[in-house]
Design brief:
Two copies of one chain form a homodimer. By secondary structure, chain A is α+β, with helices and mostly antiparallel strands. The first copy, chain A, has a domain at about 30-110: Arc Repressor Mutant, subunit A. In chain A, about 65% of the residues lie in helices and about 10% in strands. Chain A has helices spanning about 1-25, 30-40, 45-50, 60-70, 90-95, 100-115, and strands spanning about 45, 75-80, 85-90. Chain A has a three-stranded antiparallel sheet. In chain A, a hairpin with a 5-residue loop joins strand 2 and strand 3 (about 85-90). Residues about 120-125 of chain A have low confidence and may be disordered. The interface of A and B includes residues 15, 16, 37, 93 and 99 of A. Chain A binds a DNA duplex (20 and 20 nucleotides) through helix 3 and helix 4.
DNA sequence: CTGAATCCAGATGGATACTG
DNA sequence: CAGTATCCATCTGGATTCAG
């Protein structure tokens, strides 16, 4: 019996580490917004993303994009324009985040209603 | 046509804000692990969670639990024991996170394989 | 246009000690 | 047991400037 419990706890530790792994990738103030923006338009340039996301600085956008690239979620392509522009798109692996993004979107809407909705529904619109 | 595009962008902004809302709640170094721990055992005491999560300090656990409580994800109950103990459980609203946690878990496993798995599969086990 | 570099304030979080 | 209080190092991220 003790063995079963130990196994259960072991499994749970694995699960927690897995979720944590996901969060490590997704953490960062803007990461999800960036993915969401790229995903929404399929291909998106640096300056476009900069405009999509209210309040982000180019420093942060650059930094977070680099991290996403390292994690193989985003592919970076330099376009031979004048001046040069850079195009970002999700990798296949990045695409697999869509379900999660979608779930987070739905949950976020419900949560906002739950927390402030009753008192201040206008904030939602 | 311009109107359609504008509407589309407006929708996208709403989606991004919704995801961001979710992340605001879920951000914090330990929040997901805490939820995962409570969720796994249904009811869990402070010191038990402290043991479940490797590396967390009581200061952090206390702080993050408080935030989760404010966001109505977790319910706190003081038990009349000697010495007192405190039990935490997910609220109904907190329960709705299970899908997301589950997805994040699955994705985390895949992601770890993707990033380090090929070179160092032993890290996964 | 797409970043990189620098500076700097404020937030985050660990260690430790203390309380009811 | 379940926190709180304090100190302090590190990290985060904004503003600005510079470069290819």
């Amino acid at each position: 019996m003790k063995c079963v419990i130990a196994e259960f706890q072991q499994e749970q530790k694995k699960r927690m580490r897995a979720v944590q792994d996901s969060m490590d990738v997704l953490n960062g103030k803007w990461k999800i917004s960036i993915i969401s923006s790229i995903c929404c338009y399929k291909k998106r340039r640096f300056s476009d993303i900069l405009n999509d996301i209210e309040g982000i600085s180019n420093r942060m956008l650059s930094k977070e994009l680099k991290e996403l690239e390292i994690n193989q979620l985003v592919k970076r392509t330099v376009l031979d324009t004048q001046p040069i522009s850079v195009q970002y798109e999700l990798t296949e692996h990045g695409d697999t985040l869509q379900t999660i993004i979608s779930n987070l979107t739905d949950w976020g809407i419900v949560h906002r209603k739950k927390i402030v909705g009753e008192k201040c529904p206008v904030l939602i619109g």
